[in-house]
Amino acid sequence: MKYHLVSLGCQMNASDGERVRSVIENMGYQWTDNEEEANLIGILACSVRQKAIDKVYSKIHKWNLWKNKRNLITFVSGCILPSDLDKFLKLFDIIFQMKDLPKLPEMIQQYGITTPVGLQQGFDSQNENISEFWHVKPSYTSEFEAFVPIQNGCDKFCSFCAVPYTRGREVSRPSDEIVTEVQSLVERGFKSITLLGQNVNSYGLDKKGDEIDFPELLRRVGNLGNQLNKEFWIYFTSPHPRDMTDEVIEVIAQYKCLAKQIHLPIQSGDDKVLIHMNRKHGMEKYRQIVHTIKCLIPEATLFTDIIVGFTGESDDQFENTRKAMNEFKYNMAYIAMYSPRPGALSHRWFDDVSLDIKKERHHILTQDLKIHSKNYNSSMVGKTYRVLVKGQAKHDGYLAGLTEGRINVRFLSQEENLIGQFVDVKITSAADFSVEGEMITIKESVA
Fold first, then answer.
1. In this protein, which residues make up the domain named MTTase N-terminal (predicted)?
2. In the CATH scheme, what architecture does the domain 2-123 have?
């Protein structure tokens, strides 16, 4: 018996997928890359983006046609809005929430006996018993990179976002479990570990007095790095500017294993648009955070998220976002054209920015980003960087990897045994979003 799983959307779904794989494989199913030979096919949906939902419908249409020729069970989970849920009930054999993942074997044995009433009751309490999900041991898809969830849900209620309605309110995972999982991964040789949550720097705020906060969690992981004396990088995503404190930045600066790369979503560079988005922070607050990062961790790279064409965004307001792009000189920005999502507050508002204008603004920001990224990458030429080798590059004869700041690097080598290892690369040339170099040494991690 074989299975196939498709994960759409963000890293949270990718991380959840590793636990889904573990449960399915414990039932005796074997993974296949070819969905056409699978007996069980699932998809982790993402209602946050319309393109992701469109892909779900495309996939399930094809899979249901296959049922005319062979036995096949389909399931869906992930970030699902009630409006999408109602439609999925008619298309999939099994629908479940992540908190109910331990019950998936029973659902499969019953061939997907899912009642709309029972399922809706479950979606009214998304994070109830979420600890059972966290206790599922993941089947990691990489031997050197891993995700470690530290919380689930969101309390911010940005007007454009559906996550609070798909994942529920914020619930923090016990810190002892997090540190234990990180330690286990490092001892097994993992080199890159990402702490995951919708708003990681609000970790512990839902359990005041009963749990540590995010800076202390980072400190404990940093101390773990000192104790284990192994080479690895710890990342986290995504923080929210509202809860980002100087202490978080101070802790990152203090510990070697805490990667000097920060993803700080700005969404817009205009204060009025930020209010409309219900972001609960202004540009001055954001500017202070970036200033602190530059002062305490001058070598850190800065990534962000930006939405163009949000409801009511004027030309002048977009220009303020462009000014922010040019002020902060991001190494990478994930730029999205706004699209209303059912369930989010902004879905009630008229989407008054045309698609053509959104495309134009997206293009303009992307061109600005290229300039700043290329300038930074050019400053790397002649310097040597530690690189985690991730795999073969698109160009034959080259390997590809990432610096600690997550800058893409390629270098001439056909030694596949280097994949998953750290190497030193001297940068020789730069492009818009990547650099090229020459490997000069291979330094083994200290055991």
1. 1-113
2. 3-Layer(aba) Sandwich (3.40)
